[in-house]
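Sat 14:20. Reprocessing the chain from the morning session after the first attempt stalled halfway. Input below, unchanged.
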Amino acid sequence: MFLERIEKETFNEPVAIELADFLKTKKDETLELIKWTEQFAQMLLKQLPEFVLCHADIHGWNLLIDNNEALYMVDWDTLIFAPKERDLMFIGGGLGDSGYTPQEEETMFYQGYGQTNINQIAIAYYRCERIIEDIAVYCEQIFLSDEGGEDRKKSLENVKSNFLQNGTIETAYQSARLKA
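Finished this time. Tokens:
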């Protein structure tokens, strides 16, 4: 919807203008991301993964460690039953800034989590789906409102960061071993 809007509408607010111009240059990549996400979804529908209770938003910003090193998970408003990969997609996915490379993050996490079979198509699907969702939310914030001040600029930078070399889109594709 937003890709169609930026082709037809003229925006006056500077951040909206910049986002529209940026997304026009990334239209093919965005449509490819949507295409792969749909293909991953079709592949997953043919499988019978086990469903477990998932936090569904378990990235580093929703994990807190207090002064006694007790771990707390917060923001439980998206609790769902889904394959475990729905939560595991955040590990090494490049979402948020953990201060570690995705590989370092995965290594440390799985040392504590233990050995488990991971469905790489599910990981790729959930990562791609999350990127699309995040871009849509940021587009909604920027194109459908003039409010937000500095938050608007941060949202614009968040959209752009997905398309960087070694960014979240590339990481999602690498999950399914689609691209080097």
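The longest strand covers residues 52-54.
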